[in-house]
Here is the input.
Amino acid sequence: MTTPSRNPGEVPFVRRQPEPADSVIWEPSDRWVRGTKGDVTVVDSHRPLLVWEPGRPVPLYAFPAEDVRTDLLRRTERRATRRHAGATVFYDLVLGDEVIRSAAWSWPGDELAGYIGFEWFGHEVLDHWYEEEEEIFVHPRDPHKRVDALPSTRHVQVEIDGTVVADTHTPVLLFETHLPVRYYFPREDVRLDLFVPTDARTRCPYKGVASEYWSWADGGDVRPDIAWSYPDPLPAVGIIKDRVAFYNESVDIVVDGERQQRPVSFFSKPKR
Here is the structure.
C-alpha cells in the first residue's frame, strides 16, 4: 500500500488525539508542593513530577523519596484498593497510633525509580495539599487543562419540566476542558424559593469549595443537588462568587432563544 503523496510544503491536518490508554505519562513540574497531616509536613518538594496513570483523566504527583518523610512510611503487603500502574510496593503512613493503610507507593521501572506517590482519590490520605501558598483539593491541577470564567450578555434561561427557574442577561460562562459549559447566574435571577437547600459540599482543584447546594423536589420528581454556588471561590475564578449554576445534564438550558442539547458527562444523572 502506498501513502498518498502531498504537494511540497503541504501541511497535514490531524485531529488531536488522547494519550495512549496503556501508557504512564509523566512530566516535571516547577511548582513547590507540600502535603501535611495534622501539624506534620509529610511532603515538601520543589521538584515533583506530574504522572498520568492509565485510565485516569487527571494527574497525580510523584515526589523524590528524599523530599518525603520516609521515616513515617512502613512497607506493607496490603495493596491499595485502586490500581496504580502496576505498582508492587505500597506503604502505610504511620503517625503515632494512627495508621493510614496503603497511603503511598513506588512505581516500577527505571524512569520513576526513587519517586513516591500518595493516594488522593476516594480518600485523601493527607489533610492538606499546597501548590506554592494556595491550597489545592481533590487532585493536582493539570497544566494541560484550562478553566476560564467569562462574563457575558447572552440571554440564558434554565427550565425544569417547563418551569423557568433562572433567567438572566448577565451570566458568567465557565469553560472547563472536557466538561460542558456551566452558566453561573446572579442569585437574584434564580428562583431559589423553588428549591430545597442541602448540606452537600464538594471541592474542585480549579474553583475551590462549593458549600451551597440545592435540590429540586416537585411531587415525585426529585433531582438532588442540581444547583450549587461557591461563596469563596479561588482567586482565578473569583467572578463566580455567590452565583448559582446548574447541571446542564439534569435541566433544560436555553441560550439566546435556542434550547441546548443536554450533554452526557461524568455528572449525568440516571433517568434524566
User: Anything to note?
Assistant: The radius of gyration is 23 Å. The mean pLDDT is 89.
